[in-house]
Design a protein that fits this description.
This is ABC-type sugar transport system ATPase subunit. The protein is of the alpha/beta class. The protein is built from 9 helices and 10 strands. Bound molecules: adenosine-5'-triphosphate.
């Protein structure tokens, strides 16, 4: 099987700071890969490059075997890569279906289109279909997002990403600040996204969540990728020792 995303030799410097040093990374269809590392390890720099927010100094990115260049977030979204940052980028006063179509509203067909009339019926049906396909349950799609719990908000943001991110979904700390049940819901949702064949990169400092939901764990340290572990064969102590560098020093 070919990887959906293949990153080779990506580097990024900020002046004298080496944020990423010759990093390789790949992810396959339906895979959930954890990206872990201590503060400053380079995780955010890598996902900002994949989401088009910043450009690498060197290296290549392939999506489905084609070399791509993401000059902006719009480029990466256009090619089916969606990133959910911690701020979620939801509009609190808009309801769930409006948030799912935010910035991608579907216009009505017919003459009302010239006035920019949006097709609310279509968007409501599609939003319901996305949420159902991911087994996300909310009381009503007409509820403003501001009235949802933190976990429900996260679920809406992830569902929106999965609806548009046909190639890859990147989640930055999606379980932060959530209660136990909400964490459970979000982790199940991640598996539901990957079950649709969409690979997911899961960035988190909460290693038990990473061990629970991922297939593979990529460990970064001081801008380098230092380990690639199969989650089924990994344990917490081992991941921690790669993160802190004690594993590298021992080997
Ligand atoms: N805009 C910037 N200007 C200068 N240095 C930067 C910038 N962005 C990141 N860095 C530096 O690059 C290195 C990697 O940072 P990065 O944010 O990618 O790490 P991280 O693994 O995401 O950390 P955290 O878990 O704290 O978010 C750090 O040394 C950081 O200080």
């Amino acid at each position: 099987m070919e990887p959906t995303l293949k990153v080779r030799g990506v580097s990024k410097n900020y002046g004298k700071i080496v944020a990423l040093d010759n990093v390789d990374f790949e992810i396959y269809p339906g895979e959930v890969v954890g990206l872990v590392g201590d503060n400053g390890a380079g995780k955010s720099t890598l996902i900002k490059i994949l989401s088009g927010a910043i450009q690498p100094d060197s290296g290549t990115i392939e999506l489905d075997g084609r070399t791509v260049a993401f000059h902006s977030p719009a480029d990466s979204r256009q090619l089916g890569v969606e990133t959910v940052y911690q701020d979620l980028a939801l509009a609190p006063h808009l309801n769930i279906e409006e948030n799912i179509f935010l910035g991608r509203e579907r216009l009505r067909s017919g003459w009302t289109r010239i006035f920019g009339a949006v097709d609310k019926t279509f968007m409501a049906q599609e939003a319901q279909r996305y949420l159902d396909s991911l087994h996300v349950h909310v009381p009503s799609l007409k509820v403003p997002v501001a009235e949802l719990s933190g976990g429900q908000r996260q679920a809406v943001a992830v569902a929106r990403a999965a609806a548009w991110g046909k190639k890859l979904v990147i989640l930055d700390e999606p379980t932060n600040h959530l209660g136990v049940e909400e964490v459970d819901m979000v982790l199940k949702l991640i598996r539901n996204v990957s079950a649709q064949g969409i690979p997911v990169i899961f960035i988190s400092h909460t290693l038990p969540h990473v061990l629970e939901v991922t297939d593979r764990i990529e460990v970064m340290r001081l801008g380098k990728k230092v380990a690639s572990l199969k989650t089924a064969e990994a344990n917490l102590n081992e991941v921690v020792s790669w993160i802190t560098g004690s594993k590298e020093e021992a080997s």
